[in-house]
Design a protein that fits this description.
mainly alpha; 81% helix; cell membrane; UPF0056 membrane protein; Multi_antbiot-R_MarC; membrane; transmembrane helix
Length: 199
C-alpha cells in the first residue's frame, strides 16, 4: 500500500512540475504587492487542490458515463504523459500568462491550468478508473504531491536563487526523463491488458 502511494505521489508530483512552473509564477507575482503574494499563493494552491480532488472522486463516474475501457484509458494516459514529458525535456520558448502587469491572478492561470492542468486531471481520472477501491491511497498520493509542490512554490524566490535559471531547466529536464519512463510503462501495461482481453 505504501509503495503504491509513493509511486502515485511521485508520478503526480512530476506532472505538476512545480520547478518548471517557477519562472511563470515569478513573472506573475513580481508585480503584486509583497504583502499580498503569500495570500494569493495559498488561495490559488487551495483552489487547485479542490479541483484535483473533485476530478479524482468524480473521475470514475465521468469515465463510466463515457463507457471507456480501462485499457483505452491506460494507453491514452501513457500517450498524454509521454507528450507532457517531451515538452518538459524540450520546452517551447516563452509562455503567456494572460495577465496584465500588476493584475492579481484568480483561479486562472495559477490554480488552473498551471497547478491543476489538463495533464494532472487526466492522470487523476486514470487513477480513479484504474482502481476505484483505492481512493484513500490516491487521495493520500495527491495530497503528498500537492504538499511538496506547495512547499516549492511557496518558497519560489529561494528555490530560484539557489538553482538559478539553468539549474531549474536542468531539473525540469530530469523530471521529464523520469516521466517518459513512467509513461512508456503505462502505455506498455495498457497494450498488454488489451492483448490479453482480445486473445
Amino acid at each position: 500500500m505504501e509503495m503504491e502511494i509513493i509511486s502515485a505521489a511521485v508520478m503526480l508530483f512530476l506532472i505538476m512540475d512545480p520547478l518548471g512552473n517557477l519562472p511563470i509564477f515569478l513573472s506573475i507575482l513580481k508585480h503584486i504587492d509583497k504583502k499580498r503574494r503569500r495570500a494569493v499563493m495559498i488561495r490559488e494552491l487551495l483552489i487547485a487542490l479542490f479541483v484535483m480532488l473533485l476530478f479524482l472522486f468524480l473521475g470514475e463516474k465521468i469515465l463510466g458515463f463515457l463507457s471507456l475501457k480501462q485499457e483505452a484509458v491506460r494507453i491514452a494516459g501513457g500517450i498524454i504523459l509521454f507528450l507532457i514529458a517531451i515538452k518538459m525535456i524540450f520546452p517551447s520558448e516563452g509562455g503567456l500568462t494572460g495577465l496584465a502587469a500588476g493584475e492579481e491572478p484568480f483561479i486562472v492561470p495559477m490554480a488552473i491550468p498551471l497547478l491543476a492542468g489538463p495533464s494532472i486531471l487526466a492522470a487523476l481520472l486514470l487513477l480513479a478508473h484504474q482502481d476505484p477501491d483505492k481512493m484513500f491511497e490516491w487521495s493520500a498520493a495527491l495530497i503528498i504531491a500537492w504538499g511538496l509542490s506547495a512547499f516549492i512554490l511557496m518558497f519560489y524566490e529561494g528555490f530560484n536563487r539557489i538553482l538559478g535559471e539553468k539549474g531549474l531547466a536542468a531539473v525540469e529536464r530530469l523530471m521529464g526523463m523520469l516521466l517518459v519512463m513512467i509513461s512508456v510503462q503505462m502505455l506498455l501495461d495498457g497494450i498488454a491488458d488489451y492483448i490479453a482481453t482480445v486473445s
